[in-house]
Amino acid sequence: MLIKIILLLVVQLLIFQNALASPSSLFEVSVTLSESDLVKTKQKQFDTALAKAIRIELIKLSGDLSLAKRKEVEPLLKTPRKWLESYQHVDIKKEGVVIGQQIRFVFNEQKLYKFFQENNLVIWPRSERPITLVYGSQKLDTSVVKIKQQNIDDLLRLDFRGSANRLALPIVIPTKSSPWVFPGGQHASLDFKALLQAHKANFVMTFQEEIKVSGARFFTWQLYNKQGLKVKSGRAENKRALTNLRNVFASLLDFYSKQYRQSASILNSMTIEVSGLNNFTKFKKTETLLQELKPIVHQVNLTKMIEDKAVFEMVYQGSYAKFIEKLTATKTLKLMPNSGSLGRLEASFIAKDNKAF
User: Fold this and answer.
1) Mean pLDDT of the chain
2) Is the pLDDT of residue 180 over 70?
3) Secondary structure tally for the chain: helices H, strands E
4) Rounded to an integer, what distance in angstroms lies between the CA atom of residue 181 and that of residue 103?
5) What is the SS3 assignment for the chain?
6) What is the pTM of this model?
7) Counting CB atoms within 10 angstroms of each CB, which of 46, 64, 177, 258 has the fewest?
8) 42-62 and 238-263 helices cross at what angle (nearest 10)?
9) 3-class DSSP state for residue 278?
10) How many CB atoms lie within 10 A of CB 168?
11) 219-241 tens-digit pLDDT
């Protein structure tokens, strides 16, 4: 019986790791089917998984752990299928052996963007998400194992990549030559700024699972900023220690996004495709024009350029109507009618007084 329980636990850990370890977009959510799900009808499996997925999607998009409790998002929770772009049943494999199943949901980006805009909800752009340098370790009595790129696949229960990816939190695993950061250690002489710069990261998160000879478990974690100041920490024991790693990344998500959400009452994202940019002068003029639409526009990023078209992703605050009003007032870009209703604006470059550049 004990061996059976241990094997079952290992399989569950493999399922969790494989279901969530691969990178996904902000609009993709994978839900692993539990043993109780697998005995249900296919329709029941789908409905249960979709209900979970839409809640995860709300948290992933906003960074707000409590968003699903707000009245504004009830239409999403009540009719999740309406916001779905596609889904796929996927076998979870380990070394070629099927060990479980999941459903991968892809939500409609344009519909969700529009819903967030209309309800004045904040989207936390991927470009604003800080990168966390993660130092993990396991202490078995007096022996310590550091979790590195080389051995993380073998430490199933402590593989944190899935927990981070589930919430779209970018992470970095330290290199072999890195000085190690342990929770509770003395870090006065450590140059956190240089360490983070070397890994192109913004925060250091360190955790350790400690297992005593008696079987007692302890989980400790700490978060440090570039100045080496501890800004968050936590500790759990025994049964709670087994699931605390997932909770840690939820805590980081809330902490990272909170300042962003508070700094702007309403922030949204919109993609705009501008045509007619057949020379560098027109392109530069358009990019500068978009960047200067402050304080409404917070950020402008060029994402694609093909022939005479450029695609920009813009982060703006306030209502959609005010944003369009500001954009139209430039008289340099002509917006195509109703293009914004699909979550993507289309515009063409026009020269003032019809003069060519």
Assistant:
1) 83
2) yes
3) 10, 14
4) 37
5) CHHHHHHHHHHHHHHHHHHHCCCCCCCEEEEECCHHHHCCCHHHHHHHHHHHHHHHHHHHHHCCCCHHHCHHHHHHHHCHHHHEEEEEEEEEEECCEEEEEEEEEEECHHHHHHHHHHCCCCCCCHHHCCCEEEEEEEEECCEEEEECCCCHHHCHHHCCHHHHHHCCCCEECCCCCCCCCCCCCCCCCCCHHHHHHHHCCCEEEEEEEEECCCCCEEEEEEEECCCCCEEEEEEEEHHHHHHHHHHHHHHHHHHHHHHHHHHCCCEEEEEEEEECCCCHHHHHHHHHHHHCCCCCEEEEEEEEEECCEEEEEEEEECCHHHHHHHHHCCCCEEECCCHHHHCEEEEEECCHHHCCC
6) 0.68
7) 177
8) 50
9) coil
10) 21
11) 999 999 999 999 999 988 876 76
Which tens digits make up the pLDDT trace of 264-318?
A: 556 678 899 999 999 999 999 999 999 888 767 878 999 999 899 999 999 887 6
10 pLDDT above the threshold of 80? no
- Alpha carbon distance 238, 62 (integer Å): 32
What is the CATH architecture assignment of 127-264? 3-Layer(aba) Sandwich (3.40)
Distance separating alpha carbons of residues 310 and 18, to the nearest angstrom: 37
What are the tens digits of pLDDT across the range 208-219?
999 888 888 889
Under 8 Å between Cβ of 290 and 273: no
Residue with tokens 């052996």: 97
Structural domain boundaries of the chain?
A: 28-123, 127-264, 266-349
Q: Could you write out the three-class secondary structure of 313-354?
A: EEEEECCHHHHHHHHHCCCCEEECCCHHHHCEEEEEECCHHH
Tokens of 323: 């944003």
Three-state DSSP at 286 gives helix
